[in-house]
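Weekly structure sync, notes
Attendees: PL (lead), two postdocs, one rotation student
Agenda item 3: pending single-chain targets
PL asked that the sequence for the first pending target be pasted directly into the notes so everyone works from the same version. It is reproduced below exactly as submitted, 380 residues in total.
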Amino acid sequence: MMIKVGITGQSGFIGTHLYNTLGLYPDVFERIPFEDDYFENPEKLYQFVKSCDAIVHLAAMNRHNDPQVIYETNLSLVNKLINACEVTGSKPHILFSSSTQEERDNLYGKSKREGRMLFEEWAKQSHSQFSGFVIPNVFGPFGKPYYNSVVATFCHQLTHNEEPRIEVDGELKLIYVSELVKHFIDRILLFAESKAGSNTETFHVPHTKTIKVSSILAKLNEFKSSYFENGIFPNLNDPFDRNLFNTFVCYIDHEKFFPRMLELKTDDRGSFVETVKLNSGGQVSFSTTKPGVTRGNHFHTRKAERFAVIKGKAVIELRRIGTDKKFTFELDGDRNPSVVDMPIWFTHNIKNVGNDDVYTIFWISEHFDPNDTDTFFEVV
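Predicted structure, written out during the meeting:
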């Protein structure tokens, strides 16, 4: 049977990644849409909870000038969700996003700790399932600068000619958003398979990287210097560096940054052009595309990729998954060999719009593995 999953805070940073990742498994999960105004419309909230086998409660206020507002808002959301379950007699598996700030003496941490306890008590009384997730600092693509994480703030600043500042050079315990999403999905599957009645747990999500704020900024400055300014891909062999780089790239203004023109050197022997400079490995491929033919219409969730058009006329299109905005780039390899890089979670294609074959060199950051292609098809 399909597992019906709803996500409060679906449009937020973690919610977007979880919603999109669930969409990669259409034979396993049915995504029940959620909108923020459901909390102000009891009937819509009732219908939502009745439709779900599992609800991941991510909706929360993180920042406000008055900490009391944060505390009251977050507990209000918890109580509204519990009330909706009680009114409708619904018993979904609720997964609650708490924070390591539970341990700190602040009202945000207090709201998370008390919210987790309210859900746990509800699950015990109603013989339902509950998983409380105590989560470290989360980073990844599409996080909101000045709100979600210092990584998001630094990436935005470095790609928009702003000067980052370190307020406190503390040591951060981090987890990449895709790693966190996997924990949510694993727990949903585990509880669905167990078919247990009352089952409550508090799961302390392990961090995957411990690093000082200054070290994060140093790595991001290297990315800016090597990739943003000189077009050189950094070494992506280390998973943390790969995840940090993929995060950084997503803050670039793609409409202004691409296509990047390559230097064409010509003499009586012919022509020569450097298409990609790397500090790590991967795989390089060459293709020809006949007039009118489109390649691609797929996206990746971890692989960095470059398209270099060296002959012929092509149009490259990109669209971030879950959005409607399309980026369109026209490339003419005969006049100006040029490149466009593909951010993760952007579906992309390349179409020959000329009269002759298009010659394209592709670089991707991993060797092709037929058992783990990290390639998901969706039309741009």
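Discussion points:
- The first helix runs from residue 13 to 22.
- Residues 75 and 115 are 6 Å apart (CA to CA).
Action: rotation student to compare against the earlier draft before next sync.
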